[in-house]
Amino acid sequence: MSCPKSGMQVGKAGNPARRRLTKFGNVYLARLKESHFSVALKVLFKSQIEKEGVEHQLRREIEIQAHLQRPNILRLYNYFHDAEYAPRGELYKELQKKQKLDEQRTATIIEELADALTYCHDKKVIHRDVKTENLFLGFMGEVKIADFGGSVHTPSLRRKTVCGTLDYLPPEMIEGRTHDEKVDLWCIRVLCYEQLVGNPPFESTQKTQVDVRFPLSMPLGAQDLISKFLRYNPQEWLPLAQILEHRWVQAHSWRVLPSSCAQMAY
Predict the structure, then answer these.
(1) Does 42 appear as a known binding residue?
(2) Catalytic residue among 129, 167, 180, 211
(3) 129 an active-site residue?
(4) Sign of torsion, CA 231 232 235 240?
(5) Domains identified in the chain and CATH numbers
(6) What is the per-residue pLDDT for 137?
(7) Does the N terminus or the C terminus of the chain have fewer Cβ atoms within 10 A?
(8) 241 labelled binding-site residue
(9) Could you write out the DSSP letters of every residue in 34-58?
């Protein structure tokens, strides 16, 4: 179908870009007629949003994501919700298909993610739900952080609300303690392990544990990076700047886009 006012063509059922069908709406691949620029068009059902009482969450997601422009964060171009198109889908599906990723792919994703989160934290934004389902892949396989519905914009960078997926939650959130932007660092640790091994490090009932058993297949450099988060106190975790400089990341990352890469014009 087409949208004459916007000069946009929209794909319908059967199109692989229609990634997720939820009770709140559908996602379509849309393309501008003149420039052929592709975007993901998210169509939401207002009645369902009002019924579930999540208007505030939607407003917060739009407010936060519209102000973030970084190569490894899924860009929101307009409140009409024509978001940047990520043609290679979710990292979750890539991991499901391959079961686990090699050192090069994992280190590249960790570098991209650490850079994107550095940008978010500089903007006083805590994502709080970084996981494979919320990481999309661009044309060259680069990571795009998406789904800012659970994120917060707070100048103090300190919160107490529990938000996120249990496998990725750090101890302070599970225990209901005040937390800050370091909750996103914990997710990097979990993601690094999950990509190299094929499953999250914590699948026991004791969700507050911080010890990790490394399989023999785990590269020593990756073990060293993950071990920097084995302390209970988040103030002692490795900061994002040092993750970017970590020797294992530097040795194996083949990052596609530099951190200073300009976004494609809309």
Answers:
(1) yes
(2) 129
(3) yes
(4) positive
(5) 8-84 (3.30.200.20), 89-252 (1.10.510.10)
(6) 94
(7) N
(8) no
(9) TT--EEEEEEE-HHHHHHHT-HHHH
The pTM score is: 0.67
Strand partners, 125: 153
Binding residue per annotation — 133? Answer: yes
Task: Give the DSSP letter of residue 199.
Answer: S
Q: Which two tokens mark 198?
A: 């094929």
Interior CA angle at 62 toward 59 and 68, to 5°?
145
% of the chain beyond a pLDDT of 90:
30
Contact between 2 and 21 (Cβ < 8 Å): no
Q: Which two structure tokens, joined as six digits, stand for 80?
A: 């009409």
160 annotated ligand binder: no
Is pLDDT above 70 for 261?
Answer: no
Is 155:145 a contact under the CB 8 Å cutoff? Answer: no
147 is in an annotated binding site: yes
Question: What radius of gyration do the chain's Cα atoms show?
Answer: 19
Among the residues of the chain, which ranges form H helices?
Answer: 46-52, 55-65, 91-98, 103-122, 171-174, 183-197, 220-227, 240-245, 247-252
- Beta-ladder partners of 186: none
Residue with tokens 């599970």: 174
